[in-house]
Amino acid sequence: MVFDTLSTARALKEAGLDERQAEAIAEAIRSGQGDLARQSDIETLKAEMKVELYKVALAVVAANAAITFGLLRFFSP
To answer: Which of 25, 43, 69, 74 lies most in the core, judged by the most C-beta atoms within 10 Å?
Structure first.
């Protein structure tokens, strides 16, 4: 999301703030938005986490199968 600091500062000046205050507030709002996650960021992260979850689940299944076959081989006559 693009934040228009100029129009925000103008609106704040029209609301009664002096120019320095209006510009400082507009700049503070703009700089505070830099760390916000966008919907596309969240969707990308969800997809990456899903892949990692499947990798872990597959590793658990493989480890379980290896342990089971190892125990069967160890205890079989």
So the answer is: 25
